[in-house]
Amino acid sequence: MSNEKVIQILQDHGIKPSYQRIKIYEYLINEKNHPTADMIYRELAPGIPTLSKTTVYNTLKLFNSVDVVQKIMIEENEVRFDADMNKHGHFKCLGCGDIYDFPIKSTAIDYGMPEGFELKDEHIYCTGYCSECSSLQEKTS
User: Fold this and answer.
1) In 10 A of CB 43, how many CB atoms?
2) Can you tell me the distance from the alpha carbon of 21 to that of 83, in angstroms, rounded to the nearest whole number?
3) Which of 56, 80, 96, 134 could bridge 34 with an S-S bond, Cβ 3.0-4.6 Å?
4) Which pTM does this prediction carry?
5) Dihedral angle computed from the Cα positions of residues 32, 51, 64 and 128, in that order, rounded to the nearest 10 degrees
């Protein structure tokens, strides 16, 4: 995605496109590795000497508040981020720890919400073993 497109997306969501914000968003768009804030900091800090962990955390909080990124909380002690705002699920491999996107084929899931309740957000998380880790498990069994 071009730098101009990133700037436009941020501006469309009311975000002032500072250099650091642009780089954080570009990382999320380009890498697709569902990083934690610390992973983003470690990756970007060498190229942006003025970047702090606080800036990364605050930027991700801002991005999430205006629906530019979504939080992925498959495990309660780990928050990851995803810039793909299309409806999809997340699968975390219990072997390697990687998180994979998968399509959600059903567009209408009946949650049986009580009358008067309004659903604002939904996430589908699964855990198991990716194909590579499944193969390794079979070989060691």
Assistant:
1) 16
2) 13
3) 80
4) 0.84
5) 40
In sequence order, the β-bridge partners of residue 70 are 82
pLDDT (tens digit per residue) in 93-104: 999 999 999 998
End-to-end CA distance of the chain: 44
Round to whole Å and give the CA distance between 75 and 4: 35
Judge whether residue 139 has pLDDT over 80: no
**Among positive and negative, which fits the CA dihedral 61, 31, 73, 37?**
negative
Regarding predicted confidence, which is higher, 122 or 80? Answer: 80
Token digits for 105?
A: 């084929």
Domains of the chain are: 1-69 (1.10.10.10), 86-141 (3.30.1490.190)
Residue 73 gets the label, from left (phi > 0), alpha (psi -120 to 50) or beta, of: beta
Task: Write the pLDDT tens digit of every residue in 70-89.
Answer: 999 988 888 999 999 988 99
